[in-house]
Amino acid sequence: MPNTFIKIATVTVGSSGAANIDFTNIPQTFTDLKLVFSTRIITGSQANIWYKFNNSTSSLSWRGLYGTGSAAGSNNGTTVGLLAGVTTAANDTASVFASGEIYIPNYTSSNNKSSAVDNVGENNATASTVYLVANLWSNTAAINQITLYSDYNFAQYSEATLYGITKA
Amino acid sequence: MPTKLVVDCTTGATVEVELTEAEIAQREQEAKAYAEAKAKEEADAAAKAAQKEAILERLGLTEDELKVVLS
Fold first, then answer.
1. Which residues in chain B have their CB less than 8 angstroms from residue A162's CB?
2. A1 has a pLDDT exceeding 70
3. What is the pLDDT of residues B46-65, one digit of tens each?
4. How open is the CA angle A102-A105-A111, to the nearest 5 degrees?
5. Is residue A2 scored above 70 in pLDDT?
6. Residue A108 DSSP one-character state
7. Which member of A18, A23, A63, A154 has the lowest number of beta carbons within 10 Å of its beta carbon?
8. Closest residue to A24, CB basis, from B9, B30, B33
């Protein structure tokens, strides 16, 4: 069986927290990328989690479908970043982390870059948010950097792992 | 000072770096922009709901009754 799904790097947030998690100098040798994350922020209630490519927050757009446990809806945006869903926060059940993944096909191509998100702001309670998001970065540059961030600092033990996927 | 974790995917090395003043300013600007966009989205949704309620009241129908009419 070909070895086509390879871990590139993992980052775990330490006790001092972190505003961003940056994957830089991403190898250009894979076909697709997959970023898997487990996050919690240090303050407040559940907040959005964002990502950006090559440190760019221009020429982007997203459309999301969400359910909160009591309602469902859709939204869209063009500011701040590409939407990775929501992250669990300090007001949520202790020691519970949001989880999600971002799939980024053809990240080295010279076309605009689409990516898909599947996320849930885990809370171990009735009220929680699940998100599916379609993101578009209208830029033809190859992706060599991915930054994951939120409105508040990530708490200790938040983690993100980047995988490279090669077509068989 | 907030920090970021930067991993070099080629070497595997991770370093913790303080955000620059520019990065902090950008972060605050982005949070403000999102808060404004979200407030507008919520205001639009509230206005639409109020409009819908007013129309139903004029028609003298409940939402469920309207669904029956339209089904």
1. 9
2. no
3. 999 999 999 999 999 998 99
4. 125
5. no
6. T
7. A63
8. B9
Tokens of A122: 């885990």
Asked whether residue A30 carries a pLDDT value surpassing 90, the answer given is: yes
Give the CATH number, domain containing residue A10: 2.60.120
Tokens of B40: 């507008």
Chain A closest CA to B69's CA: distance in Å?
24
A91 SS3 class: coil
What's the number of CA atoms in the CB half-sphere (13 Å) around residue A127?
Answer: 6
B4, A20: Cβ pair inside 8 Å? yes
Nearest to A80 among B3, B7, B34 (CB): B34
Distance CA(B39)–CA(A154), nearest Å, equals 24
* Residue A115: partners with Cβ closer than 8 Å, 6 or more residues away: A82, A102, A103, A104, A105, A135, A136, A137
* Structural domain span for residue A133: 5-165
Instruction: Determine contact, residues A149/A21, Cβ cutoff 8 Å.
Output: yes
Q: At CA A101, angle to CA A31 and CA A28, rounded to 5?
A: 25
Nearest to A22, CA basis, from B1, B5, B25? B5
Q: What is the 3-state secondary structure (H, E, C) of B45-67?
A: HHHHHHHHHHHHHHHCCCHHHHH
Among candidates A24, A9, A25, which has minimal Cα distance to A147? A24
Domain count, chain A: 1
- Residue in A closest to B44 by C-alpha: A75
